[in-house]
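Support request, please re-run this one:
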Amino acid sequence: MPDSLITGDAGILFVLAANAALWFFLEKRTGWKLFNFVPPLIFIYLLPAVFSNSGLITNDSGVYDWMGDIILPTFLVLLLLDVDIRATIRVMGKGVWVMLVGTLGVVVGAPIGYAIVSGWLQSDAWMGFAILSGSWIGGTGNMAAVQHAIDPSGELTAGLFGLAVIADNVVYLIWLPLLLNLKRLAPIFHKFTGVSDAQLDRMKDAAEEMVVKKPKPAMRHYLYLIAIGMGATWIATNLAHVLPEVGVVLTASTWQILLVTTLGIALSFSPAKRIPGSHELAMALVYLFVSRMGAKTDLSGLAGQAIPFVAGAYIWIFIHGAFILFAAKLFKIDVHTSAIASAANIGGAASAPIVASFHDERLVPVSILMALIGYAVGNYASLLLIRPLLMWVAGGP
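Re-run finished. Output below.
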């Protein structure tokens, strides 16, 4: 690889931030249909990978470690401030159980999908499946968090993160239209699950009464949020280094992510949840971090692994779908809630509102809350359940 043109921290941060900003600018201003099929996320990841592999920017800088130590836990805390478990249960009722059973489907499907295709993958590819599980229970933020917990430096798993991003988006191209078109099967679905019109009316009435509004953020609000995010990060980091490590599952980095997640959920029950701008600031930091992950990736390792990895992901997603169907039948849940529950798992806060607006616009606010519950449980499920299962299938750490 040639000597890098940009090696300074400020220059690297400029490139990463400008790259993330560029793709959202193009999506907003151009209206290109390309973005209906390939979201900005994949470009935000891939372009820095091209930059670092071609020598434009270095992939070896202390700024990358700083982003992992500070930016990542900060955006996790901010993402979780908007979680409202009580409101979600009040509106969706047993639909929340459908989502959690769907989460169980992600947990069960991960080792099965990996086991079927592992013969065509490198020995450490299980870590890529673990990283993808973060996205499929919570979202992009969880995917980055799981990767950081497994490999804080990012050296071992940067390419596997790339495979997870590719599989996430390739599966999304099929799964999202499927969830949208379930609406056309509503009569058949409701006959299968035994849901009544009265249940549907009660849910939609409750959703209409729920108003999720925050005032426009002011400068002081961003200072509040930065203080809260970094304060929680400082507490979690210090606690993580005094808690006992348990093998390769509960390391200091894993403890940090789990503690940050716990603190974020706890803060969602405090007045901090009313501070405006938390989700927007958190997502900006998420995409900046995804750009950072791209810059750490060695593209030469992606091509030969992509097809079997994506095949395993498709096996995995249909196992999740089977669990969603089973739960809908068990709890007598409608097609709209079931589709949103799956989207809240697989697509997170980016996809759940799209599915909700297509099925019934009154369900958009609660779909966001359901996706945020995915943020809350994603790190626990991925690190404490899926990671050990994948390690067991792979035959060791």
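The CA atoms of residues 105 and 194 lie 22 Å apart. The two ends are 30 Å apart (CA to CA).
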